[in-house]
Amino acid sequence: MRKLLPLIGTPSQSHPGGRSAMTCRFRCGDACFHEVPNTSDNEYVGEIIAGAIGRRTMVRAAAVVTVAAAAGTAGVAGALPAAAAPADTSGKSSGNSGKSSGKPSAKAARGLRYSSVAPNTADAVTVPDGYAQNVVIRWGEPILRGAPAFDPEKQTAAAQAGQFGYNNDFLALLPIPGECDRQLLVANHEYTDEVLMFRGYDAANPTRQQVEVAWAAHGLGVVVVEEDRRTGKLTAVPRHHLNRRVTATTEFRLTGPAAGSDLLKTSADPTGTKVLGTLNNCSGGTTPWGTTLHGEENFNQYFANSGRATDKRYGIGTGATERKWERFDKRFDVAQEPNEVHRFGYVVELDPYDPTSTPRKHTALGRFKHEAATVRLTDDGRPVVYSGDDERFDYFYKFVGSKRMKKGSSRAVREHNLSLLDEGTLYVARLTGDSPTIEIDGTGKLPADGEFDGSGEWIPIATATAKGAVSHVEGMSAEEVFVFTRLAGDKVGATKMDRPEDIQPSPVTGKVYVALTNNTNRGVGANAKADEANPRNANKHGHILELTERLGRPESTTFAWSLFLVAGDPDDPATYFAGFPKDDVSPISCPDNVAFDPHGNLWISTDGSQLGSHDGLFGVATRGSRRGELKQFLTVPNGAETCGPIVQDRRVLVAVQHPGEVDGATVEKPASTWPDGPGKIVRPAVVAVWRKDGEDIGV
Ligand code: FEO
Ligand code: CA
Ligand code: CA
């Protein structure tokens, strides 16, 4: 039975990412309203006439149910919804329209045998029948010794620096040696929504206190969580000695080939190696050596008054910023401190087991809007890191390290492993389609060979060694490649993609999955038109790319690719679910973060669904007879995005980011009452979900 689409309003057309204007403003610095920063004329996926037609038969079952989606009734987009109930902690599917559909299918792939949650607009986290949930930790909960209880009316920077930060995004769970019922939760705090944090916030005149609270609410959080042995419930353990906050003012060390370069020197740091803080950490990754990686994404929005061409390529504006931080610290004013902005846009690495350690920014992984950084090892133990640059028409990258990981936990071994991302080669992806260009008409219609697919190469752009760095890009020094990485991608003709977000290699098959969220500018005006890897013009629902690297070797410089998922309403002929019949898959729009469960199923969270329902989390089989069967597992409250999914045997963990972020909403006029109900301030939070009968997820 098809899941019915909810009868709600058409999503806002004025905000191309499907988000509210407030999300665009605070999260991305209105990225979609600026000119497309990639105006390079490098080619897009080229034409190679396919020798063979119809390598795989496409199954496109006729839709059996026709649903009038977006029928014009009131919805969340563009309007403040009525206050709703507090967070559901009962385990029932909350919100009538989100009720699970039918019984769990025993035919679904192992790990995905739950009743799909129907699309809905409930102001709640809605989970499948038979599942329960709890809020693990909320914005403002004290985690460090001496931090006060949360009081949004009296918030201070000192209090916030000891409390869980705002807008949790990427999540990692790591084991704690000797503490078997506890795990270490690491979270990104991507950005702040000042109008939802401060009563009476005046955007034209923020106060120093508000700005300093925002600095302390950005960054990273480390907090020990305790498991309930009978369920999947997790609770935070305040004041644990491993708990830590990293903020916009914590000292970082710049490492790798660009560290110490003139491009990174400032008046406060003539060495070019020390920088305060990390900003806009979106998704990330966990390394095999027990650290966490965090991508600095839309860092451009914090820097004012630039007119340089290199900054324009990164979307750094010529005027004041939204948050006006430049009024309170001149390092955010490019006109006064031109190189500070070169010290953001990196992958940062944290050793969460050492709360006194100085986190690092790795210049060898390049500087761009890193969505995430996911790691796997070559057979001989060298790290390979995948990272997408989340911007319309930007690229995705791979770093292959030259040093081998060592095993052990001594200080020397740990220090060695923390240097693994300083030496190696950075590559950018170029994709070539195998169908004639004329068959890619921009509608999403499959070409005659039945698949959007082709071959690809990783183009080296620079190599860092212990003795120095070498550029592989004509006209750019190695330092320039590592600091102005987007320009290097332009010069070598990387493929312009539809917002490359999270990337995840399957731990079972080794295939690599790249989430491409959307790109409503594809094919519009002078922008690049559809190609086989980005086959829809005005692509509002996004797609997922599957890469098969040569001989399964992650260090390979060539790969085959195909589109695994072309997202949208399954009734839309332009959608594709890896060939699985479309009459029993969940609608999905705007894939963003991806993760694997222990069974090898891919889990996808969404950001900015354009189907009129709330964002959510979905599981999909990537192999076997159920490959492509996509099932929605949960939905998030009004205005929220689903982030940071982790799927363990007994538990699903998600970060509910920016709940209540709806145009016009304020502290006084909230658009959501999640998670604590009416009269309480809306708070981003981490949620754990488990099966009420104590069994594993989806079996
Ligand atoms: Fe922070 Fe690309 O999402
Ligand atoms: Ca093809
Ligand atoms: Ca994201």
Automatic annotation (TrEMBL):
Family matches, as InterPro entries: PhoX (IPR008557), TAT_signal (IPR006311)
Q: Where are the transmembrane segments?
A: none
**Where are the stretches annotated Disordered?**
85-112
Residue spans with biased composition (Low complexity)?
A: 85-109
For this entry, the protein name equals PhoX family protein
By its UniProt entry, which Pfam families does this protein fall under? PhoX
PROSITE patterns, per database record: TAT
The source's superkingdom equals Bacteria
